[in-house]
Amino acid sequence: MGVPLRPVAARSVYREYAPPAALADVVACGWHGSTGWARPLRVLPDGCADLVWDGDVLTVVVTVGAPLRLWVPASATRIGVRLRCGAAAAVLGTAMPELPAVTRLSDLWGADARRAEEMLALTTDPLAQRGILETLVACRDGVPDRRVLAAVQALGTHTRTSDIAVGLSERSLRRHFVHAVGAGPKQLHRVRRFQRFLRLLGPLSAGRASLAGVAAGLGYADQSHLGRECRRLSGSSPAALVRVAEKFQTAGPPARHDRAHVPSHHRGAR
Q1: Burial of 60 by CB count in 10 Å (0-12 exposed, 13-18 middle, 19+ buried)?
Q2: Mind listing the pLDDT tens digit for each residue in 97-117?
Q3: Positive or negative torsion for Cα 116, 138, 267, 169
Q4: What are the CA-CA distances from residue 227 to residues 130, 215, 221 (Å)?
């Protein structure tokens, strides 16, 4: 889910973990986060869906078009499993456009989700809680559309949907994307390119790269185009995001960025 857009206190923690091999096709990672202090968490869009246990309820958090603000209390602990972009609709059993940004999982999975909440409440061990979430996902019958997954991967190297050869017409590809991701290929390409920009905040803050050079390298028309996209997808200018990264450099690396942070990949700030 995201990247914090200000330095994170020493007691604020975020860690990602590789998924079990059996779930690698549908799960991008598991994660564990501790808030550290009460604040609104900015979640930056990445096209993924997270199953999130906050110690009380199990929810699905989705961001694909705009940043999301979630209030988190002090010392809150969250455990999550991030579903791969393009896999969430099959796992969740619903079309992604039908989901609001935050949905209680029991509204989708009923008794299965409520039993998982009961099990999660019985332990405070992050490893055990992550295992409960992974088992819950493993029990689902949905199989992601391989063509959509291949197209999502291809968006990392192609800028035009017409260049993506997955055995679907451009119109059919868009229909499948909207169902599986909640946005068409063009919108997802914008989001994934923005995520690549976030991964370059370190070099930018250290002076090893320039905004103009990064904009050109990522395929933006110019630096102004990059600026407009940053404001649409994060609410901040590129320079503001770089300044946050500079603070991280001086204050020490954050445990994570705000999607729940500004991530190593990220969505938002947790």
Answers
A1: buried
A2: 999 999 999 999 999 999 999
A3: negative
A4: 37, 9, 11
Amino acid at 98: E
Q: Could you state, in order of their start, the residue ranges of all structural domains in the chain?
A: 13-251
**Which option is the CATH number for 13-251: 1.10.275.10, 3.30.70.260, 3.30.750.24, 1.10.10.60?**
1.10.10.60
Q: What is the pLDDT of residues 136-163, one digit of tens each?
A: 999 998 899 888 898 888 876 655 555 5
Which stretches of the chain score pLDDT less than 50?
2-10, 251-270
Residue 88 C-alpha from the chain's centroid: 12
Q: DSSP secondary structure string, 165-218?
A: -SSS-HHHHHHHHHHHHSS-HHHHHHHHHHHHHHTTHHHHHTTSS-HHHHHHHT
Q: How far does Cα 55 stand from its chain's mean position?
A: 20
**In the structure encoding, which two tokens stand for residue 88, read together?**
């969430």
| Cβ contacts of 134-139, under 8 Å, gap ≥ 24 | 134/19, 134/20, 134/23, 134/27, 134/30, 134/81, 136/51, 136/112, 137/23, 137/26, 137/27, 137/51, 137/81, 137/83, 137/91, 138/22, 138/23, 139/112
Query: 145: which residues sit within 8 A by CB, 6+ positions away?
Result: 86, 90, 176, 180
- The predicted pLDDT at position 104 comes to 98
Tokens 């409520």 correspond to 114
Distance CA 2, CA 144 (A): 24
pTM of the predicted model as reported, rounded to 2 decimal places? 0.83
Q: Is 106 exposed, middle or buried (0-12, 13-18, 19+ CB in 10 A)?
A: middle
